[in-house]
Amino acid sequence: MNSFQTALAASMKQGTYFERLLTRFSVPEELFGPLSMKSLENDIYERQTAGYLPEASVAFVDEIFKANSAILNSLLTILNERLFDNGAERYPVPLICMVGASNELPESEELDALYDRFLIRREVAPVSAESLRELLDFARTMGSVDYNDESEDPSTGFALDLDELRGLRLKALQAVTLPEHIVDLLIDLRDYLQQKCEPPVYVSDRRMVKVVSLLRIAAYTSGRTTVSEIDCLLLQHTLWQRPEQAEIIREWVLHRMAQDKDATQIQYLFTGLFQRTCHANASPELKPTLLNEVRSLRQVVMQQLRDVETNPMTTGKLFASRKEIGQGEDSHASLWLSEEDCVRAKQSLVPLLKKSQTALEAQLEELLMLEVALEKDTPTFVLAEIWPEKWSDLIRSYPL
Asked: Which residues contact residue 350 at a Cβ distance below 8 angstroms, ignoring those fewer than 6 apart?
């Protein structure tokens, strides 16, 4: 963690960096500054905030969930409203980002609000045996990287322009649209987590609003003007309450990305066309209209099949470095996803999309058969032999 703190502090072009380790005995003075003795002489309760959290642009607080009730109220106001109550006055704070770390998840209900303020959540596992050599190689070279050197490779050196970051959210909200199908995805996912998961995963209204902002910023910084389904893979890092729930969210999003959203509707339309075709043998004047409807639905299925076959989630590049963003090489690449996340997403999506492709091909075949049946004036008893299940449904529902 020390290397992360050093890199974060050194990467700032301007502003103030603040860090602190909390214990169960931490007092507000450790975060917000000591009381001003001079102000107390004048019966004014004020803190000297210089060098403390209220004047920081970026902050790192270790063991964040050890914050006690004496600290919580002021901390929540800073995180949610970017305001700090100092004496009788309320002041805006320049905080852009706070990173919290903890070896344990909050168990007390009084910490739920604080937990909810942290939008992005990542579990950091111990280094695996396979990666131990890489860690030791990094440890050998610690101190040799100049984080302030802009010529450094982007993977090891970078610079945060705080003025640019402050305006980033507004630019993203103005430039990036949120498609209706992404809104539907968010609504359905929240309903799934709260109504169908066991135990239920609570997602607050505040978190959902912040998630939308995050998705827009992710799209904007990846060079896009519309939120894509690939951005929704970030939801696995924002909506869980327990680390094991991240995989549940990830799998749900991937299945949603791969599923044919109109498959049920197409099957329903086909069933209706089949029933009307059976009745049309007694009313030949209906056949031209039916033939046009079958051909139109066939075109829809063919387009969906083409969309699946050329789906950028499997054929395109999902991971992009900072240098590649905005170069026009792939409009679906994301700056926010790790290369590992993208590889895992592709590995999961390929079989899911293959299943969707197989279902569409079967629907297309049925539509072609029905189209030929209409063109050839196929008798009803032959239609019944070709589609026995649909014929059974028909005779149970409607008299011929």
From this structure: 314
Per the structure block, which two tokens stand in for 114?
């604080």
State pTM to two decimals.
0.76
101: enclosing H helix or E strand: strand 97-101
Longest dimension (CA), the chain: 102
Contact (CB, 8 A) for 118 and 211:
no
Peptide bond between residue 288 and the one before it cis (omega within 30 degrees of 0): no
CB 333 within 8 A of CB 346: no
- Side chain identity at residue 294, one-letter code: V
Q: Which residue has the tokens 């320049």?
A: 94
Spell out the residues 6+ positions from residue 15 whose beta carbon is closer than 8 angstroms to its own: 56, 57, 58, 94, 96, 162
Torsion from C-alpha of 362, 355, 201, 342, nearest 10 degrees: -140
pLDDT tier at 44, thresholds 50, 70, 90 = confident
Q: Are 277 and 370 in contact (CB under 8 A)?
A: yes
| 127 contacts: CB under 8 Å, gap ≥ 6 | 135
| Cβ pair 332, 228 in contact under 8 A | yes
Which pLDDT value is given to residue 330? 47
For the stretch 283-309, pLDDT in tens is: 888 889 999 999 999 999 998 888 887
CA atoms within 13 A on the CB side of 174: 5
HSE value, Cβ hemisphere, 13 Å, CA-based, for 263? 16
Nearby residues of 40 by Cβ (< 8 Å), 6 or more positions away: 46
Q: Is 278 exposed, middle or buried (0-12, 13-18, 19+ CB in 10 A)?
A: buried
The one-letter code for the residue type at 85 is: D
